[in-house]
Amino acid sequence: MPKLRFVLGDQLSTALSSLRDIESGDIVLMAEVGDEATYVRHHQRKIAFLFSAMRHFAEDLAKTGACVDYIKLDDSDNSGSFTGELERALARHDIDGIVVTEAGEWRVMEMIRGWSRQFDLPVEIRADDRFLCTHDEFAAWAGRTKTLRMEYFYREMRRRTGYLMAGPDEPAEGRWNFDAENREALPPRLEAPERPNYPPDAVTQEALDLVRSRFGNHFGSLEDFDYPVTREQALHYLGWFVAEALPKFGTYQDAMRQGQPLLFHSHLSGLINCGLLDPRECCEAAEAAFHEGEAPINAVEGFIRQIIGWREFIRGVYWREMPGYGERNALDARRPLPDFFWTGEIDLNCLKQSIEETRANAYAHHIQRLMVLGNFCLLAGFDPREVQEWYLVVYHDAYEWVEMPNVVGMILYADEGLFASKPYAASGNYINKMSDYCGSCAYNVKKREGEGACPFNYLYWDFVARNRRHLARNPRTSRTVATLDRMSEAKVATARADTRRFLDGLTSGGDY
Ligand SMILES: Cc1cc2nc3c(=O)[nH]c(=O)nc-3n(C[C@H](O)[C@H](O)[C@H](O)COP(=O)(O)OP(=O)(O)OC[C@H]3O[C@@H](n4cnc5c(N)ncnc54)[C@H](O)[C@@H]3O)c2cc1C
Ligand code: SF4
């Protein structure tokens, strides 16, 4: 008897576990549903990208002979939910079982777990082996370690995959990690390479028109949409990245330049997360470039670490800590997120640039997310739930499993250092060192207090004073607390008063 194989929108891979043993007579169900597009009001570009990628994938799958039942968002009877579409599909097809690859998010997994009872059919939930580390393997590793630190997890993944290994316990070029070489600012005359673009075809145009009419009031812009949306384009983009940008990816990984959102970054996260690219093939392409002498070790090691290290680690943390992880708020941050996160109307140039680029591209690179926007959210004490929602809405690569630990653990320290060894708090000095933002800013990065001073400078000391108790007991931040204690009372009071004046001047509560 035929099976129904339900493929979700971030499972766009023909090698997917739920499609592996597909037989003639089986039905592949794919559905664009309103619930998923609106449970948070995703960036317009993110919705258009995913609908276009889903439609292209369904076409490619059908060409292999699979029987694909594809439900478009504007199909007249679309029920608006995965469960509703499954119910309708079961009425259309004679089916004796459902096969699905586990969902990336807790919320959707809970829904899938209910299907067997609800429809009185066997539901086989298969592991998502696009990830290199299973839930059990992560749990076993976490159980053997005293503190969850990505670096040790990463070394285990290097040993296990054999990527950049010279022997069973011997990393290529003698070191596990070349991060110390990856913190250079961008030399003024160094230009980022020009990227290939993929102009919308008829399928993408239809997705763009649909988003314009149905979600035109969501955050973000659809102008000049040119992101890869097919497997073929994704592979082309990966090849371009490895040849043209990877060689300098490592060295300038932390650098920021006004008007240049991508620099040498891969821009592959959206393609990997939705399934158009497999993380292994990305690592293998980068590793081959190293062995052929086309990219240096610091670049290739840095790139592979992000994928088999950070990406897998973050997913492991999410599943280990759910449910409830999103509610953590160790620093008791309660301030509402200000409106300018949606409008970009703010005179702090680093924030303005990062938000405007996010609005235009549904993308900002890691350091903008971490050390500009994230750092500001941490210092200002914005409510973790509101910050999570913002990050989930605005980035084309954002799914809860990857967004949540990056926000709760990495930027906000809301889990009290579950995996971050200290809060990533920094004054304006760091942003000035790594970018050209400060030169065109209304504020003076060198000024620490009073009118015209860079707000990051006083917010930083207010943050340290406000969270003194947490920071004093962490060996990596206790020296900062000691510095605070050596500052005069008047200086600390000024930083705190400047902070209050600045934060109270921000408005929040508008719609987006
Ligand atoms: C607050 C915050 C929120 C984030 N939210 C997301 C998100 O929703 N989705 C997402 O994919 N990434 C997220 N990241 C991680 C990272 O910023 C993006 O993966 C990266 O900027 C994507 O751009 P890129 O493909 O050019 O990455 P590159 O800089 O070229 O890095 C290569 C790849 O490494 C992986 N990677 C790197 N860092 C991380 C990380 N910390 N966690 C997981 N994967 C990583 C990505 O797959 C990325 O494509 C977040 C980071 C922060 C600090
Ligand atoms: S001066 Fe301060 S607020 Fe302005 S761009 Fe620099 S770090 Fe940002």
Question: Can you describe what's shown?
Answer:
With 512 residues, the protein is mainly alpha-helical. It has three domains: 4-126, HUPs (Rossmann fold), CATH 3.40.50.620; 135-200 and 229-321, Serine Threonine Protein Phosphatase 5, Tetratricopeptide repeat; 340-504, DNA Cyclobutane Dipyrimidine Photolyase, subunit A, domain 3 (Orthogonal Bundle). It contains 22 helices and seven strands. It has helices spanning 34-38, 44-63, 82-92, 106-113, 115-119, 135-144, 150-161, 202-215, 231-249, 269-274, 279-291, 297-321, 340-343, 349-361, 366-380, 384-394, 400-411, 428-434, 455-466, 468-472, 478-486, 489-504, and strands at 4-6, 27-31, 67-71, 98-101, 123-126, 165-167, 170-171. A five-stranded parallel sheet has the order 3-2-1-4-5, with helices on both faces. Strands 6-7 form a two-stranded antiparallel ribbon. A hairpin with a 2-residue loop joins strand 6 (165-167) and strand 7. Helix 2 (44-63) runs antiparallel to helix 8. The longest helix has 25 residues, at 297-321. It is globular, with a radius of gyration of 24 Å. It starts with a strand and ends in an 8-residue tail after the last helix. The mean pLDDT is 97. The chain binds flavin-adenine dinucleotide and iron/sulfur cluster (SF4).
